[in-house]
Fold:
Amino acid sequence: MTRARTISRLVEIGLRFIGMWPDSAFPDLYWSVYITAIATLQYYQYSYVVAHFDLSNLSLLMDSLGLALANTLAFLKLLTLRWNRRIFHNILTAMERDWSNCGSCESIMMTVKSLSRHYSIVLIGVHALAAFFLSVAAYVFRALSASDDFRELPVKMEFSFEVTKSPLFECLLIGQFLYELSLASVAGMINALLATLVLHVGGQIDIMRQAIIEMSSSTSPDISLTVIRNLIHKHRKIITLSEDIENLFSSISLMQLLWNTLIICCAGFMIIITLSHKSTAGLIKSVLLYVAKTLEVFVFCYAGEYLSAKSRSISDAIYESLWFNMEPSNSRVLLFIMVRSQKRLTITAGKIFDLTLEGFMSVMKTSASYMSVLHAMY
Structure:
């Protein structure tokens, strides 16, 4: 595939890392090794949760459970993405075709590509920063505040052997850092991928809107008929691409909303606890986890809202065009495009409900309710 695409280099590297990019070297090997490593470390994380499950010590339980749930969410999203890799490859093919056919509207797509690159840097950077503070920074802060030799892993895991002896402890510490950094970066990459795909669809809608404006200013009936035919084909391609994105991210979106409600609740509860105990390391760790998971939910909900608004803008562009100067037969065809565009494109959570900013507020309210219950129990 050529470099004329909306997907940024960072997202492409992440997709190659998990063996999802077409024509990448040894994709099945990369996927198998990485997913096996995640599953193994997840086992040790949940072993710790089960071994230390004590409702009388909610702070320890929420600290270990929140991070374990966050890693499990990334693990499940990877499995879902792998399961739908054929749909993903179809999306990439459609995007490449859009770039080759953009013609005089390349400036619009270049703007979309620039936005995609910036959003990818921000989303992946926030998750990578959160992973750094969850592992290395948390350990350093606790080691500096400890009076004796500090030998506690930052990510709570239950092993069947002694882990405090050197050099095993240092190797596990580095391994946990790489584990958290890679998994957080991959989670950020998936969020950036959704933002990129939705931005691409938005760019195609902007190209269609520009074509509608140029068509309405044309006085030649033949040219108008040709443009209308092209508009219909363009609209069909946009709808098909949007449906593929919906099929790719529908299950991921449902997991994101349900799972992150619990994670945000756990992270918020830990923020309250660490504020009362004045624990700097715990506060930084909890705040960054809270911000990263809130940002994930916001990105998905905003992407759904953005796609819906963009799809409705097609009918607005037709209405605001000079359709009354066109041939009646051509303006009637435009009416059908307007009616179809009023059935908005969207991203759903498991085909159950649409992702909107209102849904984001519902997640935050639900998380706050659970958080208050935990605080009352504490």
